[in-house]
């Protein structure tokens, strides 16, 4: 009985231990903001703002972003250092954790790429602690995606070694518990027991760790009940009770009482079980934690079922029902509907049982439909028996034959229908795949054509640049030297005249022409890209395009010297086009350009503080040649472009390429 109740508790996912109303949250958050206004040190104040952003990231993404931006402003130039760039990406990832997991994972990896670089000694421990936290969050996202084993691997290979490296026993203990809980959900209870014991050993005798110990004792007891180690569960629960005496206001007490109630249920001591369940229920309601309330009510239902008290069990199920119906979990609804049908049947309320089972049947998979029909027919038959028992007894044998015939007919019809559906799905899949192949082939042909055009353009640019630099440039330089020689001879043989002044003017104009010619040649095919690498050429590009009223900051991280020439040219042209667009349209005073490589991916980020634009507006539907060229270059390299912009709030272009198969 306990495993079924605990399964419901897990599926209901008790995620908010400190449940609060919106008004309480706003009041608490505003009070924290008022307190940090009294901090004089700008760096300390910026860190406090980031922590406040982390608090709001679970409740109000807009407010969380506001505090990150305010923190960045407080940091000033320090925000551009590796350490604070890592922190800013870390807290932005927390904002996207629930609303955009893919972007959150990207931000966590960017944070890690900054925090593992050269960090000042005074921040090195904190940087490692942040890396441990971000990898723990990254692993949690993997678990959400249905990869719990990968989550355990991240904890064991990334997070816990970092916690050991900095000697943070609290961080180690928390993540040992995370490993144990993940293994418990995978039903590997023996392995989970080992990690719970490791976590408890780390916290043994530590002052100020009562809350962590209480949590560990309760979760370890839950695991012991799963593995049916009842005596060990009793020992852990006794330790939890002793620990709870020192923290009587702990928000974890309802969970302790819920697990304790489940333990006493396994011991058939229903009075003590109900005592703990009621304590748990009162605490959960006081915290406004509806998920926990539903879990405890279902545990009470299980206890009454075990005691063979279906009426009281039914009452508890009716209390659970509103909490389950307002959630999206189909498994929870199926479980509750099924038990409502079963309990109503026990009470002889066959019509009500039929109603609940009809609702349950709508939620189960197609594979279970036939079985659901049989159960529904059985419930209907029991209801009819209560009304017409004598008549059913006379025709019982005939009905049984009829039911068998109906079942056979349904089976044949079901097989035929299933075959028809499968054939229809296969036909549709074949048609869709064929259509997609044609569309992809057309797109590939267009991209190949565009790629060939780009390669031809780059070769022609290179040829023209060489001709301009080596041919016409040399000719102009030669003419300039000859004119200079003539001017020198005249200055030695006769005094300066108006014609000699004009000659010097022509020589100066020739100098400007040569310089302009060389500038055009460099733009067409920069020498630094071919001979000094990507980082140097992009830095030169940013310096060259900067204006007195426009600052362009460039940062590079982990760039290699051995990228292929086609990849170098593509990245250079993309950044060049983005900067040109910003110069033309953004009215910005600051542009930030970042290029980095991490974990097999190449990242480009170009952001400005200009007037921005609406990425979904009409102007984007009629995008110009520049942005179209950028998209085509990115598609050729199988990259991904993300535009983060809003009117009046600047614009950011984030691009990533998977390097495998490119270089």
UniProtKB/TrEMBL annotation:
Domain Histidine kinase residues, every copy: 463-661
Residue stretches of each TPR repeat: 173-206
GO molecular function: ATP binding; phosphorelay sensor kinase activity; protein dimerization activity
Catalytic reaction annotation: ATP + protein L-histidine = ADP + protein N-phospho-L-histidine
EC number, UniProt record: 2.7.13.3
Sorted UniProt keywords: ATP-binding, Coiled coil, Kinase, Membrane, Nucleotide-binding, Phosphoprotein, Signal, TPR repeat, Transferase, Transmembrane, Transmembrane helix, Two-component regulatory system
Coiled coil: 376-403
Top-rank lineage group of the source organism: Bacteria
Region forming the signal peptide: 1-19
Transmembrane domains' residue ranges: 411-431
Gene3D superfamilies the UniProt entry points to: 1.20.5.1930, Histidine kinase-like ATPase, C-terminal domain (3.30.565.10), Tetratricopeptide repeat domain (1.25.40.10)
Pfam families, per the entry: HATPase_c, HisKA_3, TPR_8
A Gene Ontology term for the protein's cellular component: membrane
Name used for this protein in its record: histidine kinase
Species assigned in the record: Sphingobacterium olei
């Amino acid at each position: 009985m306990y495993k079924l109740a605990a399964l419901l508790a897990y599926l209901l996912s008790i995620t908010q231990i400190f449940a609060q109303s919106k008004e309480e949250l706003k009041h608490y958050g505003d009070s924290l903001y008022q307190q940090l206004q009294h901090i004089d040190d700008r760096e300390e104040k910026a860190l406090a703002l980031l922590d406040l952003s982390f608090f709001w990231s679970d409740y109000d993404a807009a407010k969380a972003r506001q505090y990150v931006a305010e923190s960045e402003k407080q940091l000033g130039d320090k925000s551009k250092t590796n350490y604070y760039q890592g922190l800013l990406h870390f807290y932005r990832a927390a904002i996207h954790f629930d609303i955009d997991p893919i972007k959150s994972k990207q931000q966590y990896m960017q944070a890690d790429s900054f925090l593992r670089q050269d960090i000042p000694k005074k921040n090195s421990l904190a940087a490692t602690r942040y890396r441990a936290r971000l990898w723990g969050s990254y692993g949690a996202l993997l678990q959400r995606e249905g990869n719990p084993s990968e989550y355990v691997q991240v904890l064991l290979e990334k997070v816990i070694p970092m916690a050991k490296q900095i000697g943070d026993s609290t961080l180690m203990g928390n993540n040992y518990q995370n490993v144990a809980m993940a293994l418990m959900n995978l039903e590997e209870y023996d392995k989970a027991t080992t990690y719970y014991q490791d976590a408890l050993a780390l916290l043994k005798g530590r002052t100020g760790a009562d809350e962590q110990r209480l949590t560990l004792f309760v979760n370890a007891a839950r695991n012991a009940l799963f593995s049916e180690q009842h005596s060990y569960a009793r020992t852990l629960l006794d330790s939890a009770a002793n620990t709870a005496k020192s923290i009587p206001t702990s928000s974890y007490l309802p969970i302790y009482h819920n697990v304790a109630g489940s333990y006493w249920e396994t011991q058939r001591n229903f009075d003590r079980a109900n005592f703990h369940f009621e304590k748990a229920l009162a605490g959960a309601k006081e915290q406004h934690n509806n998920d926990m309330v539903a879990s405890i009510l279902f545990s009470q239902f299980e206890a009454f079922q075990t005691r063979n008290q279906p009426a009281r069990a039914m009452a508890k199920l009716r209390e659970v029902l509103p909490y389950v119906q307002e959630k999206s979990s189909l498994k929870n609804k199926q479980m509750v509907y099924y038990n409502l049908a079963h309990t109503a049947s026990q009470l002889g309320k066959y019509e009500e049982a039929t109603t609940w089972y009809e609702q349950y049947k709508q939620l189960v998979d197609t594979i279970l439909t036939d079985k659901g029909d049989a159960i529904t027919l059985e419930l209907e038959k029991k209801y009819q028996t209560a009304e017409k028992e004598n008549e059913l007894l006379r025709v019982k044998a005939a009905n049984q034959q009829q039911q068998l015939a109906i079942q056979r007919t349904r089976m044949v019809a079901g097989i035929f229908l299933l075959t028809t559906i499968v054939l229809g799905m296969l036909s549709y899949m074949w048609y869709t795949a064929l259509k997609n192949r044609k569309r992809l082939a057309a797109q590939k042909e267009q991209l190949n054509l565009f790629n060939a055009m780009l390669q031809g353009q780059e070769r022609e640019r290179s040829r023209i640049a060489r001709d301009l630099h080596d041919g016409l440039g040399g000719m102009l330089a030669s003419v300039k030297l000859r004119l200079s020689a003539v001017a020198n001879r005249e200055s030695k043989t006769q005094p300066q005249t108006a014609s000699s002044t004009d000659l010097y003017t022509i020589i100066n104009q020739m100098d400007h022409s040569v310089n302009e010619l060389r500038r055009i040649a460099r733009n067409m095919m920069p020498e630094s890209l071919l001979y000094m690498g990507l980082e140097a050429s992009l830095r030169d590009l940013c310096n060259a395009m900067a204006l007195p009223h426009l600052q362009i900051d460039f940062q590079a991280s982990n760039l290699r010297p051995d990228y292929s020439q086609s990849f170098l040219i593509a990245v250079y042209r993309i950044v060049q086009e983005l900067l040109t667009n910003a110069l033309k349209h953004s009215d910005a005073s600051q542009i930030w350009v970042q290029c980095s490589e991490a974990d097999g991916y190449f990242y480009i980020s170009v952001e400005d503080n200009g007037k921005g634009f609406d990425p979904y507006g009409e102007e984007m539907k009629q995008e110009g040649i520049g942005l179209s060229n950028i998209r085509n270059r990115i598609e050729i390299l199988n990259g991904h472009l993300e535009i983060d912009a809003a009117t009046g709030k600047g614009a950011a272009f984030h691009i990533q390429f998977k390097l495998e198969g490119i270089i």
